[in-house]
Amino acid sequence: MNLDELKQAFVARYPGAGEPFVCRVPGRVNLMGEHLDYNGLPVLPMAIDRAIYLAFAPNRDGEFRLANQNPAYPDVSFENSADIAPSPGGAWENYAKAAVQGLNQSLSVEEYPGLDVLLDSDLPDSAGLSSSSALVVGFGMAYLAALGFTLGEDIPRLKLAGILAGAEHYVGTAGGGMDQTAILMGEAGSAIRINFIPFQVDPVPLPDGVAVIVCDSLVKATKTGDAQQRYNAGPASCSLIAALINAHLQAEFGNEFEIECLGELWYGSLCFNRTEVKQLLDTVLPEARIAPDKIARRLNMPVAQVREYWLDSMPDEPEGLPLQARARHVFNEYYRVMEGRDALLAGDVTTFGRFMNASQQSCADDYGISTPELDALCAALRDAGCLGARLTGAGFGGAVVALAPAKEVDRVLREIKESYYRKVVKWEGAIPAFCTTAGAAARYNS
Questions:
Q1: Residue 81 Ramachandran class (φ > 0 left, ψ -120 to 50 alpha, else beta)
Q2: Is pLDDT above 80 for 310?
Q3: Pick the CATH number of 3-206+439-444 from 3.30.300.180, 3.10.310.30, 1.10.10.10, 3.30.230.10
């Protein structure tokens, strides 16, 4: 990305705005730990070497004027205020509004400056590489500068990650904090293990001689409309599982036992071990599927209330909700993260690859977030010699991440061009696959 050209384009777009600042905000790829962050459980992502870039300058009229070098995203503006109304679902300015409103509330802003912004990117969108969270972080960093805050001094990076994770709920997705934390805390050459209870980050260096390959399935992984409901079904399912566990614990031990998220089974006051958590889940969820009326009886509340609290976020399941499988994924994926980290630290990429393959199977069978195309792409990558391959991101489309011996990358890409892109999705152009490296965190360039 040529930053001088971006600055020149900014000056042409906003004459009189003055010399712009620039920030670079990377995407992320998640190596292990899908749909764990909103459960308070560790994840293992890395920032990547592709990013979005924002050229920006504060203005005094309180107006946010946004432009994008990609013509698919129209110019738009909105007024900064204490209560910013969202645009219709899918509008790209909602990510700016999310960041601005979240910071206004968290920092108790009383005067509301504006920004002129021009954005460019080499990060694919709707590919499961966290382009949406990169937007939120980028607009958040630009707005912090307009407010006169210095990132890392006036506000720690980890604190900003937590603020923006909550702020992103503004757009309607009930996610956790993995993406924002990976983007703001990434380290060149390393994946990072993010713990949420307590909130901390530890580097996990990637072994030499292994390449990280990212392949777009060409199935768009949007988070609007029906896709948003499918995504939000995951957090709603886990919240419902936690409620059923609370009902069981309180019946057994009294009201002093309560968890807010599944991660507290391991990291809260209970401090259960692996065997104890497994026994608890088997006791609370003995059946493969459970009907809403049975859930209501266990929670001692009307079915209508169960629907209002949890089921409105889920697709209708005539045979009952597959909560047992959802819990099984969370349980097993947590241990894949913990043991996978140890494998990487030991340089054992073969074992880590097996964990990636098992994670993909769990995402497909137990959590229901894969697609036939993602399954086929993972299989094609393994057949081409990759050590492991799995979907990355929310699922329902988007990208696959794979590990391969570095010397085998060219051959892998040649083979999946034929076995997946031409055969499965009938794609004849340049394949949307690339090698990436663990990149540095978001930063200001000027």
A1: beta
A2: yes
A3: 3.30.230.10
